[in-house]
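#struct-help
A.M.: can someone run this one for me? Single chain, 131 residues.
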Amino acid sequence: MSLSIHAETQDGLGVNQVFTRYGHEKGCKMVEMHDTKLHGLKIKTYKSLTYKRIGKEVNDLLKNDRRSAKKIREVVTDGEVTSGYYMMPSLQKGLNRYILFSTQEGGSGAVIFIEGNLQPDDIIKLCYTRR
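D.P.: on it. Structure tokens below:
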């Protein structure tokens, strides 16, 4: 029962297709956690995928999420978006959804989906504070 509830948090998002299509592919590594703490922050859903050679496909799937994002933060290098995060519309009051991503030359990179009672500042601290 809880598995179907967790899957709904990503329904309709391109990032869900990224995990579904590439989560078990060779050259990819997927991590999934539910109802956990990460650096002291309560997380309802955490999913990450690191990949090689499929960067273009991942970027194409994330373009739709960018269009429906409430908040967008991106790093652009030489005219290309190389990393950032999208704050997606909430499904439940108090639970925010974020898509984080980073790409590198050669089509490798990472994409992360996080849902929890987190604010944008929490996401920045989570990603950029060294512990």
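A.M.: thanks! The chain has one domain: 2-128.
D.P.: also worth noting: Confidence is low (pLDDT under 50) at residues 1-7.
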